[in-house]
Q: What sequence folds into this?
């Protein structure tokens, strides 16, 4: 197991390096350091001396990849790419264009994002799997028929409608929860209830419909017919055999959600005024803070690769037929 994890970790290094290089090229092919300085300072009445001063303060006055004026290893290390991009591999995020410590901001803002994303993920999985099993158990009947219609209806409505509608109904009309805001102490629960419920409800349509398809496919396989021929009840076949084997593709889908546990939800955090990593990224894009955006792109790639690794390992827990080679 340890050898497998190390091998997969080594496979991830070229992927992360590729993401790092492509992100760096995209940023600096669109905006040169001079363009970044003028965007941040404002185009009007900006002298070249002010541009050079801004670049020097933030380390953008160096060459991009190779510093021919330096000697030895500094030819490669005394460059923008090494200081701004390769440093992300040892999680030195540096400072934002406004001078804030990006690493400290991430550590502070990850907890509100986790407070929303983690219960949304767990509750969403429980609700979706339960609803999908219920539709699969009553396949071809009214429960299944109306359940599919409900799923399609939920999928057809934008998540913005649920956010705005939930704020209006539960926050303004009924005054059950605050419309927006966040408290880092023990009073944060009242600010998190509505975003979590909206996140769970808006995901029922796509999640339950997909899981239903997975369970119905498993119910048509040979091992299910063998279990039924042995006299096992339909409920036992469904919950003991179908559910266990259906968890494999479900775990694959969960991988896509894992980075969001830390990265946060862009829409939910923005509309509910929650100071998480999602709103942090939106604010960086709006203010054109390229240092923060680069850091968040790299962090998302790292989390996604970790999710893939955890999924491969978890396969052996839900299905003994899967072996690590």
A:
């Amino acid at each position: 197991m340890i050898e497998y994890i190390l091998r997969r970790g080594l496979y991830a290094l070229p992927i992360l390096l590729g993401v790092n290089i492509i992100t760096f090229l995209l940023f600096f092919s669109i905006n040169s350091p001079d363009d970044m300085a003028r965007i941040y300072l404002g185009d009007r009445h900006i002298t070249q001396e002010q541009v050079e001063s801004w670049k020097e303060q933030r380390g953008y006055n160096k060459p991009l990849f190779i510093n021919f004026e330096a000697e030895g290893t500094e030819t490669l290390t005394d460059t923008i790419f090494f200081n701004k991009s390769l440093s992300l591999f040892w999680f030195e995020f540096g400072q934002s264009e406004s001078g804030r410590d990006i690493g400290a901001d991430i550590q502070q803002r990850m907890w509100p994002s986790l407070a929303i994303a983690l219960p949304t993920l767990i509750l969403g999985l429980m609700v979706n799997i339960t609803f999908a099993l219920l539709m699969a158990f009553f396949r071809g009947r009214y429960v299944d028929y109306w359940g599919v219609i409900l799923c399609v209806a939920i999928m057809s409505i934008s998540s913005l409608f649920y956010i705005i509608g939930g704020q209006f109904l539960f926050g303004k009309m009924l005054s059950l929860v605050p419309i927006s805001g966040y408290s880092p102490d023990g009073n944060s629960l009242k600010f998190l209830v509505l975003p979590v419920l909206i996140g769970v409800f808006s995901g029922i349509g796509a999640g339950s419909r997909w899981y239903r398809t997975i369970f119905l496919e498993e119910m048509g396989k040979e091992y299910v017919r063998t279990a039924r021929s042995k006299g096992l009840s339909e409920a036992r076949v469904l919950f003991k055999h179908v559910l266990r084997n259906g968890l494999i593709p479900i775990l694959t889908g969960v991988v896509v959600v894992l980075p969001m546990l830390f990265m946060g939800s862009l829409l939910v955090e923005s509309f509910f005024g929650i100071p998480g990593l999602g709103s942090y990224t939106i604010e960086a894009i709006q203010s054109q803070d390229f240092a923060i955006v680069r850091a968040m792109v790299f962090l998302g790639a790292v989390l996604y690769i970790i999710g893939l690794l955890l999924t491969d390992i978890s396969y052996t827990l839900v299905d003994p037929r899967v072996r690590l080679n």
User: Anything to note?
Assistant: The chain has two domains: 2-90, 108-318.
